[in-house]
Amino acid sequence: MQMQMHMTVSVTCCSAVPALPDIDRQRRRHHTLSDGASGANTEYGGARCPCTGVSTDDNSTPDTRRALVVGASGITGSALVDQLDRDGWEVSALSRRASSTGRVRGIAADLRDLGSLRAALAEERPTHVFFTAWQRQETEAENIAVNGAMVRDLLAALAHAPLQHVALVTGLKHYLGPFEAYAAGEMPDTPFHEEEPRLDTPNFYYAQEDELFAAAARQGFTWSVHRSHTVIGYAVGNAMNMGLTIAVQAALANHLDLPFVFPGSEEQWNGLTDMTDAGLLAEQMVWAATDPAGADEAFNIVNGDVFRWRWMWPRLAAHLGVEPDRVVGYEGRTRPLEEQMAEHQHRWSEVAAAHGLAESDVTRLASWWHTDADLGREMEVVTDMGKSRDAGFLRYRRTEQAFVDLFRRYRAERLIP
């Protein structure tokens, strides 16, 4: 006898809606969840899955989102432009020299000239701004004045725009202090956590944050701050490009038969550290700009793995074609690249000619000072990603592979041998 069995399957997302954190912030929105599993969030205009926090009824779609990327020619800015364009956003890319490609519209403006910004942005109606620009000055007082004003003026020039969210990139100097007092005095314990109080030292990152918070209060948008470690990514003429700097060092070492010497401190050579892939940083910024869990929060952003330079340095050397017997690690003292390369960097033009490279000006490629600052720290630098993961951003990069992919792209663009 044939028997039929009828089963009723009930699938629920979860039995209860988790409470959202009640944190006092300068720009904190009130989160309202309905009873039950629907997770309706009237403050954000839609329903959210109560397990993941991801919007299930988002009125803002890539077709209606208009992004303005500020500092679009830099490492982070160019990665953001690529990410947003792939995701179908309408993208405007602001830099000192406008460059339009495909669907991306270039805008030229001087961030230090409010009149220039007002003129350039008069017809712009972005819903989301991604601010990735900064300009290094001689003193931290000047850094604060210039870089704080750039954030303030950019957002003032967009007072007419229907802004929903502004994402700002800063970095680990939030915990380590400014260049002129870098990693000096009492430092917070590692790994660095977002809730660490500000250092009692003037810092242009703090000034940028304060300008962002003030504009958000006036103009009614949400914000996010993204604290990256050293960024691995593609750019030319960028002041903070460790990947390209190391590749140029290796090419000069190969051309001139020099040792490939680690330039940093004993602590960096032996201690644990981490880095940030530009693509991962871009992904986190887009996530925070479009997911309610990212609103009005500061997040660390690193790849998710850790390494020691004593392990990484010979591996990068191999990827860059340096023979093992010419690879030199830490040997009793720091050997800054500015010191190592002083008498050799002018010979980059020979390397460029020998390999048919596209750029013969080494100053457009290598930022010795910045790599020296990063690798010369006399402390372990490791960053916690727990807050970001708890909020729902779970993506990851393998740091060695990020370097390999970067070197491959620079070779394809004929910038390194």
Automatic annotation (TrEMBL):
PRISE-like Rossmann-fold domain sequence ranges: 125-417
InterPro entries: NAD(P)-bd_dom_sf, PRISE-like_Rossmann-fold
PANTHER family to which the protein is assigned, alphabetical: 3-OXO-DELTA(4,5)-STEROID 5-BETA-REDUCTASE (PTHR32487)
Protein name: Nucleoside-diphosphate-sugar epimerase
Species this chain originates from: Auraticoccus monumenti
